[in-house]
Write a structure and sequence with these properties.
Blueprint (H helix, E strand, L loop, with lengths): L17 H11 L4 E5 L2 E4 H17 L7 E5 L4 H12 L3 E5 L5 H11 L3 E4 L12 E3 L23 E7 L7 E6 H15 L6 E4 L7 H10 L4 E4 L8 H10 L4 E5 L1 H7 L12 E4 L15 E6 L9 E4 L14 E2 L3 E6 L11 E8 L5 E2 L3 H7 E2 L9 E10 L5 E6 L3 E4 L2 E4 H8 L5 E8 L8 E7 L7 H9 L10 E5 L12 H9 L13
Parallel strand pairs: 1-10, 3-4, 3-5, 5-6, 9-10, 11-12, 12-13, 25-26
Antiparallel strand pairs: 1-2, 7-8, 8-18, 13-14, 14-15, 16-17, 17-20, 19-20, 20-21, 22-23, 24-25
Helix pairs in contact: 1-2, 2-3, 5-6, 7-8
């Protein structure tokens, strides 16, 4: 089989978008299965037809070039088809989780100002009826083929928007263009040697950019996306059995907490799995040399189109430290700089800055934040850099190792979380004067603890505060425990003493309320 880009109808190095790639494949491989979800099998031809029908409805609603369309849909084949339809209509898709707390979902819709909201009948979206397009409704006007022709997306156009946590309590939407997305896709095709014979997994939440890495490389390579059943995706043993049964060849995203369990499973030698990639958080294990597939460790902020570095995790007899995060993907530059944006000497820790073809255009509606995070430096001879806030060290072999953060951002179950966002929401409670969130030092996978100073002697119960947060934040952002204090401890210069709180946190097991602590 011809595995070249041209042999598959794919885009070459300098052309193409997801839409043009998929449409070429639909014409060449129309009867081959593109999506599998349980018993459902959808061919490339069927996916293309359904996406065209929805794209006509979207254009009828005025969606055009640069229009942002919110997709409030569960992980499913219909969510993937809806994303393709938005791009076919010329717009950019914004995945949002319908299971988010109602207030958070509504705030994000107000923040992002989508032209249209695509959802199903189960989502609670009262108040947005004028923007709402329900997939299970047939009340949209029909359009002829000529009337439905709209803008064909180009490289500089918006492809998608992913919202991430914000330090001020205001999430930020990262805007990624088709050109940046295509640079990533080309890398994925080459990395995995993708072909129409491949069957890959989709288990990430669509609102998490790891879902981009799972779906679109496969659907632009003529391969099949297999949607992992909900009861299977959180159990290492069940997921392994399912992969073997479904003859999965590529697991292109597995969260580290799950990947670490899966590499310890007893895999049958007849498995077709060739690669498993861990990403989203630090990986802590090295594989057994008898593992019948290659384990990869990936790293990448949302601001650089999903993935920035990758490395093969090799078996080691005496592992020392966590596996490296690897080298840059094609078209991406890595720069380890100091506070003055000057390169640090080899072997020293510095902040990672990223340049190149995968960079996002910036934050939606936030030119100030875009200017703060996407900077210019004459010291490295490049035009534009994204400052990640991640501390890294370049090893003698050229690979990078991760050494924490410059700020209060942490990873929780693979999700980027700004501790300041949680603290800002907690401080909005009428009985809370101020709040701070810390990550417990002994929490391998990111358990959070909250500390709140009571207002005017009122002491709300911990469960009341946790309920308050759970109504406004995703479950992974709600601290495992919240402690009420008389006042937050301060350093001599008047700042919150996070070290004191971290030390206090390490002496507490479980969720308990303690006696008030004076500053």
């Amino acid at each position: 089989m011809d595995r070249s880009f041209r042999g598959l109808g794919l885009a070459g190095p300098g052309d193409g978008t997801v839409v043009s790639c998929f449409e070429r494949l639909a014409a060449q491989r129309g009867r081959y299965v593109a999506l599998e979800e349980g018993e459902l099998r959808l061919t490339y031809e069927e996916v293309n037809r359904r996406a065209d029908e929805l794209a006509r409805r979207l254009r009828g609603r005025g969606v055009k070039r640069e229009s942002a369309v919110a997709l409030v849909l569960e992980r499913s084949s219909e969510q993937i088809i809806a994303a393709l339809a938005v791009m076919k209509a010329g717009g950019g898709f914004m995945p949002m989780d319908p299971r988010w707390p109602r207030e958070r979902l509504r705030n994000l819709i107000h923040e992002s100002a989508p032209h249209v909201i695509v959802s199903s009948s189960g989502a609670d979206l009262d108040g947005f009826e004028d923007q709402l397009l329900r997939l299970d409704s047939a009340d949209e006007p029909s359009f002829s083929a000529d009337e439905s022709q709209g803008h064909r997306p180009a490289g500089e156009d918006l492809a998608y928007v992913i919202y991430t946590s914000g330090s001020t309590g205001r999430p930020k939407g990262v805007e990624v263009t088709h050109a940046s997305l295509m640079n990533f896709l080309r890398w994925r095709w080459r990395l995995f040697g993708m072909s129409p014979d491949d069957r890959g997994t989709h288990l990430a939440n669509p609102a998490f950019d790891a879902s981009i890495a799972e779906v679109w490389p496969l659907l632009t390579a003529g391969a099949c996306v297999c949607i992992v059943p909900e009861p299977v995706k959180s159990s290492a043993k069940r997921l392994m059995d399912w992969m073997v049964q479904e003859q999965i060849t590529l697991a292109t995203f597995v969260p580290p907490v799950l990947a670490e369990s899966m590499v310890r499973c007893h895999w049958p030698r007849q498995t077709r799995l060739r690669y498993m990639q861990s990403a989203g958080d630090a990986l802590h294990v090295y594989p057994d040399p008898r593992l019948p597939f290659i384990l990869l460790n990936g790293y990448g902020p949302t601001e650089n189109a999903v993935e920035t570095t990758t490395c093969i995790v090799k078996a080691r007899r005496r592992p020392k430290g966590a596996p490296p995060i690897g080298r840059a993907i094609d078209g991406v530059g890595l720069h380890v700089l100091d506070e003055d944006l000057k390169p640090v000497r080899a072997g020293l820790i510095g902040e990672l800055f990223i340049s190149g073809a995968s960079l996002a255009r910036g934050y939606r509606g936030r030119p100030d934040l875009t200017a703060e995070r996407f900077v210019w430096s004459t010291h490295v001879g490049v035009t534009r850099l994204y400052r990640t806030g991640d501390l890294v060290r370049r090893q003698p072999d050229g690979e990078l190792t991760f050494h924490g953060r410059c700020d209060d951002q942490v990873k929780v179950l693979g999700h980027r979380v700004e501790l300041g966002e949680i603290a800002a929401v907690l401080a909005q409670h009428p009985d809370v004067e101020s709040a701070v969130i810390v990550q417990e030092s002994d929490a391998k996978f990111g358990r959070l603890a909250g500390y709140a100073a009571a207002r005017r002697g009122v002491w709300p119960a911990e469960k009341t505060l946790r309920q308050y947060l759970s109504e406004r934040l995703p479950a992974y952002m709600v601290p495992a425990r919240i402690e009420l204090l008389g006042a937050l401890p301060l350093t001599p210069n008047g700042k919150v003493d996070r070290r004191a709180l971290a030390a206090r946190s390490s002496t507490v097991s479980g969720s308990v309320e303690r006696e008030p602590l004076s500053a």
